[in-house]
Amino acid sequence: MTPKTKLPDLIIGDLHINPPIVQGGMGVRISLHGLASAVAAEGGVGTIACALIGGIKSHMSSDDHTAADADELTFQIRKVREKTKGVVAVNIMMALTNYDSLYNTAVREGVDIIFSGAGLPLRLPEYVKGSKTKISPIVSSARAAELITKTWVRKYNYVPDAIVLEGPLAGGHLGYSFEELEDKSKMPKWEDILPGVLAVADKYVAKNGRKIPVIVGGGIYDGKDIAKAIKMGASGVQMATRFAATVECDAHENFKQAVVNCKEEDIIIIKSPVGMPGRALDNSFLEKAKKGQVKFDCSFQCLNTCDPLTSPYCIATALIAAAEGRLDDGFVFVGQNAGRVNRVTTVKELMDEVVDEAVRELGLNK
Questions:
Q1: Contact 80, 87 (CB under 8 A)
Q2: How far apart are the C-alpha atoms of 186 and 23, rounded to whole Å?
Q3: pLDDT band at 209; cut points 50, 70, 90
Q4: What pLDDT digit, counting tens, does each position of 143-176 carry?
């Protein structure tokens, strides 16, 4: 069993997680059993991203797609369980048309935690009734945290097991406006949003007196960031982009090298077919998409918020292509700090590095 670090535990229900690091779910097919099991084995939370986990084929119907995702999620969870007894989570986007099936599959397979965002997961407590699976919404504001928590308490008498605050520097789809993301002078900081989310967590306390732990993500890069979050009252952090550049990450080597080779000026905000802004690496595919030069056919609608008639490309096939290393046919989602990544490392090396720095910053190495 991996020995604990000197950092405080991230306590989610009966789960004691140390180091208090959640590996963020990276879809499509970027964080699967390879990455999730490696992080869990080191004491963190290994997260499988469920978006388009089963892939897509041109002849698929909506039913085929739902079944393929459920089957693949089952396979991925069981593979993690074969490799480690650590904490395993799944990330399920509310924007997915088959989120019901994914929730049910995750609970049936006994995952430790479900993280859910890209929408308001107001019915999530229904799916975990009678199970040991913990649930945590992903929010971008105190207002969203209040709305979700208030609804869960009123309708289900259920307090979130944790809340993830995802700041505006995260990769992928973001819960902020284009104006906030494109104009740095208007962009909020997680440091400014966190106190409001912590106030919500303090307001709603479970019957057993347990407070809701708040986990900060979106721009968490090194041990200094981890220490800052803990000093401000967060119970843990979520990191994603740095885990994309690890040996164990499930993506193709071309994907990993794109992260390693990128510079800050390569990172842009795009208007995703999902209907949300997203942070990605600019490339020839996105340039073609801007010019309307990408041809595609949608045999089913995998996202509630996507309109195939007006979308410039199919984000599902684009992200699958990127995961498979075909970057001319897709693109890479990254966080704003991706330009600081300069090599592919192992999960253990990465976690040891950031934990050691956080311990020093917090003065716990004495």
A1: no
A2: 28
A3: confident
A4: 999 999 999 999 999 999 999 999 999 998 898 8
Residue 33 has pLDDT above 90, yes or no: yes
Mean pLDDT of the chain: 91
User: 277 near 176, Cβ under 8 Å?
Assistant: yes
Instruction: Give the burial string for 83-120 (b: 16+ CB within 10 Å, else e).
Output: bbebbbbbbbbbbbbbbebbbebbbebebbbbbbbbbe
Q: Which two tokens stand for residue 96?
A: 């997915």
- What CATH superfamily classification does 10-252+342-361 receive? Aldolase class I (3.20.20.70)
Angle between helices 62-83 and 33-41 (to 10 degrees): 30
Q: Under 8 Å CB-to-CB from 4, ≥6 apart: which residues?
A: 18, 43
- Show Cβ contacts of residue 16 under 8 Å, excluding neighbours closer than 6 positions: 9, 10
For 112, the token pair is 């430790």
- Structural contact between residues 138 and 164, judged by C-beta atoms closer than 8 angstroms: yes
Q: Determine the length of the chain.
A: 366
Domain ranges of the chain: 10-252+342-361, 255-329
303 neighbors 272 (Cβ within 8 angstroms)? no
Strand partners, 267: 281
Of the ranges 54-58, 117-121, 327-331, which is most confident? 327-331
Residue 145: is it exposed, middle or buried by C-beta count within 10 angstroms (0-12/13-18/19+)? buried
Examine residue 28 and say whether the peptide bond preceding it is cis (omega within 30 degrees of 0).
yes
